[in-house]
Amino acid sequence: MVAPATGTQDAKAPDRGTSTSGADASPADRKGRPTPTRKEAEAKNRRPLVASAGDPKAARAEQRKANAEARARMNEAMNTGDERYMPVQHRGVQRRYIRDYVDARWSLGEFFLPIALVFVVLTFVVGQNPNVALPLLLAMYLLVIIAVVDSVLAGLRIRKRLRTKFGEDKVQKGGVMYAVLRSFQMRPTRQPKPQVKRGEFPA
């Protein structure tokens, strides 16, 4: 006879389906937390660019302070001629040479705005009289033409000097236009401010 199976033997039989041994446990079970995704890992490795990035208000205050200091340095440089803090378009020995040459000479362009204002006022006052209005208009056009020609010729002379001084292939582009635009600015309003007196042409 075969003895019937007892309940004791059934209780001792291992339940392989519910085994939690180290070999069968998943990585999440072993660490006690789910494996982070790639996106989460990259986000964790990121660091704030500034120390106060966690405080947006403080970060904005620091940025405003830095911007104000940069503007103050630039304004001071525009007044003193310190090219380290000037805008890029004004830096360099050639740009300095052009400014000094333009500031050392008298040009009709620098008086264009005041003269044009006088013409406008006269046009309103005596503009109803065609015998006066037409000559005024022609004189205005003539003034513009002479001022432009004078400034362009000065720019061409400056470019020739730059070629002689720095070499044909070393002259920066845009020098003539830079000289023309500065020639049409009134001397007290020029930026950067003139660093030479009238007649003190650069060597």
Could you characterize the architecture of this molecule?
This protein is mostly helical. The protein folds into two domains: 52-86; 93-203, no CATH class. The protein contains eight helices and no strands. The chain has helices spanning 7-12, 27-31, 38-45, 56-80, 93-104, 112-126, 130-166, 175-183. The radius of gyration is 40 Å and the shape is elongated. It starts with 6 loop residues before the first helix and ends in a 20-residue tail after the last helix. The model is unreliable at 1-30 (pLDDT under 50). Keywords: Membrane, Transmembrane, Transmembrane helix. Pfam families: DUF3043. Residues 27-45, 57-67 have a biased composition (Basic and acidic residues). The chain crosses the membrane at residues 106-126, 132-156.
Break the fold down into its secondary structure elements and pairings.
Blueprint: H1 7-12, H2 27-31, H3 38-45, H4 56-80, H5 93-104, H6 112-126, H7 130-166, H8 175-183
Strand content: under 5%
Mean pLDDT, nearest integer? Answer: 80
Whole-number total of structural domains: 2
User: Oligomerization state of this entry?
Assistant: single chain
Q: Helicity, in percent?
A: 55-70%
Give the N-terminus to C-terminus distance in angstroms. Answer: 128 Å
Biggest beta sheet summary? none
Q: Give the radius of gyration.
A: 40 Å
* Number of alpha- plus pi-helical segments: 8
Low-confidence stretches: 1-30
Instruction: State the order of secondary-structure elements, H for helix, E for strand.
Output: HHHHHHHH
Got a strand count?
0
